[in-house]
Model the fold of this input.
Amino acid sequence: MNARYDIAVVGSGFAGTLLAMIAHRLGHSVVLIEKGTHPRVVIGESSTPLANLLFEELCVRYDLPNLKPLAKWGSWQRAHPEIACGPKRGFTFHHHVLGGAPSIDPERRDQLLVAASPHDEIADMHWYRADFDHFLVREAQHLGVDYFDRVALREFEEEENGIRLRGERDSGGVEFRAQFVVDATGPRGFLHRALNLGENPLPNYPATQSLYSHFSGVGRLEKTEFSRIDGEPPFPIDDAAVHHVFDGGWIWVLRFNNGMTSAGVAATDKFAAKLGISEGATAWQRLLEGIPALRAQFANARAERPFTHMPRLAFRSSAIVGKRWALLPSAAGFVDPLLSTGFPLTLLGVTRIAEIVESAWGAEHFGARLEDYARQTDRELLATARLIGALYANMNRFDVFVELTQLYFAAASFAESARRLLKPQLAPSFLLCTDPQFDRACEEICARARQRLSDAEAIALITRIHEAIEPINVAGLGNAERRNWYPIEADDILNAAAKLHSSRDEVQTLLKRCGFVCEPAPDPAAMA
Ligand SMILES: Cc1cc2nc3c(=O)[nH]c(=O)nc-3n(C[C@H](O)[C@H](O)[C@H](O)COP(=O)(O)OP(=O)(O)OC[C@H]3O[C@@H](n4cnc5c(N)ncnc54)[C@H](O)[C@@H]3O)c2cc1C
Done:
């Protein structure tokens, strides 16, 4: 291969492919290099309002109209029903005592439902990555990105004027030359190995593992003991990222519209050892036996793929950029699937790298901008690990766990609203970790939450959390009267307009523009 490219993107997951398309749109020659072939199954499936908004912003800014419908459930279903996905109306949490009898607390102290959208049309999705990533790669090729799959890259060599990537394809040698390399190969990926980058620890974060698969024949949770829930939940509890939390870990269940369901467990090393997690299918079955609702839900389920055991989940690279290379956030680090933070972090990284390529390519300050990107990426990873570490410490104390999640929901809904109001400067970082006041509060709260708390200390901590989120709370969070069910209410954001430096009218216009109020579908008879 003699061609010389401006940019080589290694790894054709959604993030690498998206960045390759953007760089091409910006006028650069781009090669996208993949070790496997599409379609292929990968994990990491549940999107969020912020992730979808970032995705949509990228589609608009870089003129990718074929991708834009994939930013919302309704437009996705109309434009690309052939690409499997699942509806995600919010986040469902249930707390369990393993081995306990089936029970539902009438006061809802063992559950938390946080809506992410008011109705299906503008809901989020679980991306069935085999279809989703394949579609993106075909689009990239269609746009003119050179794509090579089945490439086993071995070497990265930096020269005066660029870099060379060498490896094998179809048992022959291959070489790619480029000015710059973006690594989108995920944790402990290509450059991590080729450059021996090493890992940095995530401070105060527990060692965790994971076990997961894709299943057919999974029933609905709402048909188990949860059918006895009193009242109308803010969204169907299964059309969500469902989290089952217990002392030592948690289970996710994500449903797709092709009959498949993604499910797995993330747990501390201690719990994983007790469960015998490395045994795979039998460990999974043992875990289900301890949770009657899941046992019922998975009674007729079949694992459609061999179980994957990840002996180490979290990761933090010791370096994120060099003179001629950058790791996307998903290659620079990972914490845990809890709260679906991977996509927004990755898409923030794609947005930032795209912006650097757009505004600083070939300029003297290109390197300085990359350094800023690296600092921001690492800081956001640490802020995520700080919160999720505190959540792990409270999986046996659900009242505190619930309130800790409000730090995430408050920051995420504030960031989404600010961006939708075209005021991204109000929320320039994930979890608002560059806001000194909120960051200091999170530091203090998470440090306290990692300790064993008396009841009085837990109450004081919860009060502190409510104080901390108050200036950014645009979603009515922490309201005891809602008893852990948080629908999306227009009044919450309207009443919080000033926190977003906006008037009620501006917020009203925003709600209309983003489809908050569901317009009735056009009547075909009237149209005829
Ligand atoms: C168990 C688990 C569950 C998760 N769940 C969620 C979730 O629900 N929501 C969420 O937001 N995030 C989740 N994440 C994080 C999410 O997976 C990542 O944020 C997301 O996949 C990043 O996408 P990507 O395109 O950057 O990388 P990936 O999806 O990891 O894709 C990397 C691509 O690079 C290719 N590749 C790898 N090595 C090489 C190489 N040497 N040469 C060439 N190609 C290579 C791979 O084949 C693959 O195609 C989860 C992560 C894990 C581990």
The chain is about 35% helix and 20% strand. Residues 15 and 184 are 7 Å apart (CA to CA).
